[in-house]
Amino acid sequence: MSRKNIFAIFVMLGLGLGIFWWEARNINFESLITTIQNLNYFWLFIAFVSILLSYGVEAMVLHTLLKKKEDRKFGWWEMYRIPLIQALFNAITPFSSGGQPAQLVGLMQSKIDGGRASSVLLMKFIIYQTMVLINFIIAMLVSFRSVAQHFSGLATLIVFGMVIHLVTISFLLMVMYYYDFTKKMVQVVLKPILFFLKKEKRDRILQSAIKSIDSFYKESLVLKKEKKKVIKAALLTVVQLFLYYFVVYFVLLALNCDHVSIVDVLVMHIMIVMIVSIFPIPGGSGGAEFSFKTLFAGFVPSTSALILGMFLWRFITYYLGMFLGIIAVSKKPRISKHQVVSKSMERK
To answer: In this structure, are residues 92 and 282 in contact, taking their beta carbons and an 8 Å threshold?
Structure first.
């Protein structure tokens, strides 16, 4: 891991501590201690299990899209470490932009061809974004009117987040179904944007963009023929998302908020995911905490419990992924040359 990445980790940890200190500065310390003592640790444990299972199911999604009959057997750590690496680099880069390239490096460390890995990761990304959008649309149909009525400011952010997801998915679908048009469009759009760069750098960026489009298109042709694989990956992604969404519900149960509606809580968490996606600060820091306080204040009986709940939820869904990601980056899979060579000989 580079010094720049290590510095980013410390910056985000410092920013997180600063946010929680600011939110908790006026809380009665004795009240906070009492809230901690009264926690239901069973449900807190279930919250941790839920997020770990979410990473596990995401690894299954990757394995489903990646696996071919002629491949060697992939070890569980090879697949499980990739979502953890993604969690780390999503957490320390603006708009979660570092997750995709970091996953690519992780797969290449497992001796998986870079072009193939890149294409599979793009397909995994479009499936994920599609499932997030579908869940969000369902959540809006269920409860958006209530959110818009009580939290008009957040309602605007929520809709903006949906638009960003929709544009992203639309572009990737255009690559799949309108390949030539999309390539030309990207060139037309990028050229004026990159006009002020040196010619060599401009050409390098354009070539990289076209190469990524070509790679994704080739993989999409293969996966369009394997509809069962895509459907299985989509269903697993839904399970992955709900394991993630359920974390906040389990945290509320740990705070002894037994009266909460599971549907309302899931809807609120889905909306937070949309809001966080539009904040350029890594991890949506600040926006995530503000959204949690705003949306869940009515579920939690006291300020100390609300702040503690925010801390627990944020640690489990954000900071835990960072710490596990550091382990995943440092603990590379052991792939012997014999495994790779023997499989390539079998294919011949």
So the answer is: yes
Residue whose pair of structure tokens reads 């495994």 in the numeric block: 339
Domains of the chain, by residue range, sit at 3-125+227-347
Q: Compute the distance between CA of residue 154 and CA of residue 140 in angstroms, rounded to an integer.
A: 13
Give the separation between CA 346 and CA 348, rounded to whole angstroms.
5
Amino acid at 68: K
Helices (H), 67-113: 76-92, 99-108
pTM: 0.84
Distance CA 308, CA 36 (A): 8
Per-residue burial over 141-160, b = 16 or more CB atoms within 10 Å of its CB, e = otherwise: eebbeebeeebeebbebbee
**Tokens standing for residue 229:** 């694989």
Report residue 340's pLDDT band, with 50, 70 and 90 as the boundaries. Answer: low
Q: What are the C-alpha distances in Å from 99 to residues 94, 121, 172, 294? A: 10, 10, 17, 28
Average pLDDT in the chain: 83
Q: Classify 2 as helix, strand or coil.
A: coil
Question: Residue 137's pLDDT band (boundaries 50, 70, 90)?
Answer: confident
How far are the Cα atoms of 100, 116, 121, 286 from residue 175, in angstroms, in the given order? 18, 16, 15, 34
H helices present in 38-75, as ranges: 41-66
**Distance (Å) of CA 232 to CA 52, 58, 97, 124, 247:** 20, 12, 26, 12, 23
pLDDT tens-digit map of 237-268? 999 999 999 999 999 999 988 888 888 888 88
pLDDT tens, position by position, 282-333:
777 777 887 888 778 778 878 888 889 999 999 999 999 999 999 999 988 8
Tokens linked to 252: 């509320």
Angstrom distances, CA of residue 202 to CA of 184, 213, 319: 16, 17, 36
Please tell me the predicted confidence (pLDDT) of residue 341: 46
Angle at 166 between CA 179 and CA 234, to 5 degrees: 80
